[in-house]
Automatic annotation (TrEMBL):
This is DUF2568 domain-containing protein. It comes from Runella slithyformis (strain ATCC 29530 / DSM 19594 / LMG 11500 / NCIMB 11436 / LSU 4). Keywords: Membrane, Transmembrane, Transmembrane helix. Pfam families: DUF2568. The chain crosses the membrane at residues 7-28, 34-54, 66-86, 92-110. The keyword Manganese does not apply.
Length: 112
């Protein structure tokens, strides 16, 4: 069971990085100029990092309880998947959302 637990930790970390990439890509595509595109991309990633660090990071003083945190993580992942879908990456968005649901389910089972 430990190997599955560690595999899920690796999957969750990969999903977190993919979430930031999806948010940044969507933000970049919203800009009408190069400067605004970059500001939107950096802003979206920055907001996500702050929220994740405050509510979901392991060492956060304000970390949510397990069920609330998993709900928050699922919301962030599915929102990122939706934005990835609207950015034109439909297949990637479906895979991202499916893997997110699997990871959250395993985190619930392992109480992580």
């Amino acid at each position: 069971m430990d190997i599955l637990r560690y595999a899920n930790m690796a999957l969750a970390f990969g999903l977190e990085l993919a979430m930031l990439a999806a948010l940044g890509r969507w933000g970049y595509l919203q800009g009408k100029s190069a400067l605004f595109s970059w500001l939107m991309a950096i802003g979206m990633v920055g907001i996500a990092v702050m929220l994740w660090g405050y509510f979901a990071a392991p060492r956060s003083a304000h970390r949510l309880p397990l069920l609330s945190r998993l709900g928050f993580e699922l919301f962030m992942f599915l929102l990122s998947g939706l934005l990835l879908y609207t950015s034109g990456y439909r297949t990637a968005a479906v895979w991202f959302c499916a893997l997110s649901c699997v990871s959250i389910l395993l985190a619930f089972i392992f109480k992580e």
